[in-house]
Write a structure and sequence with these properties.
By secondary structure, the protein is an alpha+beta fold. The protein is 56% helix and 18% strand. The longest helix is centred in the middle third of the chain and has 38 residues. This is histidine kinase.
Length: 560
């Protein structure tokens, strides 16, 4: 291409128009992180291109020098604006808003002052003169060390900003791999042109080809930021999320190396340990704990911590930190405050002992005396005594069920292979002796499942007893079939169905003063089903059909 006046000037104007088009395309994203600085970058680029295009048309030395100074201001400020954009776009607003970075603005401000006053002191360049080149207004002058330093600083700003954007976008993986390549390549053409011009290298040293080479830069930016919507999925969200995942959460988190020495603490961990992070760095994490130490093995443990005059209990879970090659670098240590949970457990233990001993013993006394009274009295008084006896009997029975569930739940979650037909036969035999009624078991003899037998027995017992207790002359059927990896257990009866308010309480998972169940049997069914990793469903359209879907094989991890 013949680089005479018309082509170079038109190329500069074309780059200016392209910059304006890029701004228009990104208008909808101007409110995104870093976008204001990106606008400042493109505006600087636009002014540079138009001013240099005009400079090529002006042969008056004074006007030509003024337009050349505008081009220098473009060199100075485009680097600072682009680096500021990169910091905001990649979510590093803490750096962007820091005092030291604002102080960094002294560099372009100082450069601006030197450029504007250069005709007085000639520190940046000297010997400026207009040199007609193929009909264009070229400029010949010597760029002095101060001028070279200004250009180098500006290019360093651009390079560092490019690396930030490139590295951050690459972290998205294959999603923006091509776009990241475009971002990384886009500053190369104009940057190389600036450096070659400053060094006086090239076929036309009196001409600065940088504005012309902004054209490929604009094309690459349009591809990366407009065609692929990189401003829609900006990295600032990811960085903020990563920061919030550790720094902003209320859960204490510590990062330690393989020897258990503190590498980082989030604010919640600093408060928990009553220590400043800077003081804790490189110190063993265990030195800030009381009670048992945390073993750096990636497992779980429990520790006691005394801080600020408060005693707290924490469950500690460690996760190994590895690099991309799989090399273990340390651990993420998460502290879960279980102080209140432990206190509740202790209160429940006391309450449970009270119910098991005091209430049970007193209920037995009341029941025995009511039985004696019912045998001695006649008529209405005997009926009253019999009512007391039955009521206390139900209370004792409910307490026994609750104790059975509590004891089964604390039984090491042991898994066994269970023959479902045999277990159902035992449950039905016991229930039939106590409540009467007709119960049919329709379960294949070879149907087995691996589960917690005690909980499964509680589940079956309460399903059968619920049907026999509430349906006079009940016809109850207990069945089971296999569906894929599950066993579907059904208990059906021909009664009027479970009341809607009872099922509503179970679905909500809690009782209130106005909405509550009449007993504990259905709660036991729900709790045991949930513990056994099963699903529970009720059909009351024609009698009652209770369906429990249970996994045929459960692992020890599921049962824990």
């Amino acid at each position: 291409m013949n680089l005479d006046l018309p082509w170079l000037a038109l190329g500069s104007f074309a780059s200016g128009v392209g910059s304006l088009y890029l701004l228009a395309q990104l208008r909808a994203h101007w409110g995104k992180p870093g976008a204001q600085w990106f606008v400042a970058t493109i505006v600087t680029q636009t002014v540079w291109c138009f001013s240099y295009g005009a400079a090529l048309l002006v042969f008056d030395s004074t006007v030509r020098l003024a337009l050349e100074m505008v081009s220098w201001l473009g060199i100075i400020w485009i680097g600072f604006c682009f680096l500021s954009f990169a910091l905001g776009y990649t979510g590093r607003t803490n750096v962007l808003e820091s005092g030291w970075y604002r102080g960094l603005a002294v560099l372009p401000l100082g450069g601006t002052a030197l450029i504007v006053t250069n005709p007085i002191h000639t520190v940046v360049w000297q010997g400026f003169r207009v040199v007609p080149t193929a009909g264009s207004a070229g400029a010949d002058y010597a760029v002095l060390p101060a001028g070279l330093l200004i250009i180098i600083v500006a290019m360093l700003f651009v390079s560092f900003g490019t690396l930030l954007v490139f590295d951050t976008v690459v972290s998205y993986g294959p999603l923006y791999r091509r776009e990241a390549l475009a971002v990384g390549l886009s500053p190369i053409p104009p940057g190389a042109a600036v450096l070659l011009w400053a060094g006086g290298i090239g076929p036309t040293p009196t001409m600065n080809l940088t504005p012309l080479l902004f054209l490929p830069h604009i094309v690459l930016d349009l591809y990366a930021f407009v065609r692929s919507n990189m401003f829609e999925f900006h990295p600032a969200t990811r960085r903020a999320g990563e920061r919030a995942a550790i720094h902003d959460i209320a859960t204490p988190v510590a990062i330690v190396d393989e020897l258990g020495r503190v590498v980082n603490l989030n604010p919640a961990a600093e408060e928990m340990l009553a220590v400043d992070k800077r003081e804790a760095l490189t110190e063993p994490l265990n030195s800030f704990l009381s009670g048992d130490d945390i073993a750096p093995d990636g497992g779980s443990s429990r520790v006691s911590i005394e801080a600020g005059g408060r005693h707290r209990e924490f469950k500690v879970r460690q996760t190994a930190l590895r690099d991309e090659a799989g090399t273990q670098l340390g651990y993420t240590v998460v502290f879960q405050d279980i102080t209140d949970e432990i206190r509740r457990e202790r209160r429940l233990e006391v309450l449970n002992r009270f119910l098991r001993h005091n209430v049970r013993n007193e209920s037995v006394v009341i029941q025995a005396r009511a039985e004696l009274l019912a045998a001695e009295l006649d008529g209405e008084q005997a009926d009253h005594a019999a009512t007391i006896e039955r009521s206390v009997g139900r209370l004792v029975d409910s307490g026994q069920k609750a104790r059975t569930l509590a004891e089964a739940g604390s039984d090491d979650a042991g898994l066994e292979s269970v023959a479902l037909a045999d277990l159902a036969a035992e449950v039905v035999s016991t229930a039939r002796d106590e409540y009467g009624g007709s119960v049919t078991v329709e379960i294949p003899d070879d149907l087995r499942l691996t589960t917690q037998p005690a909980l499964l027995e509680i589940l079956l017992t309460n399903l059968v007893e619920n049907a026999l207790q509430h349906v006079p002359d009940a016809a109850v059927t207990v069945g089971a079939t296999t569906e894929g990896d599950d066993i579907v257990l059904t208990v059906s009866d021909n009664g009027p169905g479970i009341p809607e308010h009872e099922l509503g309480v179970l679905e909500r998972g809690r009782e209130t003063d106005l909405n509550h169940g009449s007993g504990i049997g259905l709660w036991l069914v729900r709790w045991t089903t949930t513990t056994l990793e099963g699903d529970l469903a009720f059909d009351t359209n024609d009698g009652t059909i209770v369906t429990v879907r249970l996994p045929r094989e459960r692992s020890a991890a599921q049962a824990a």
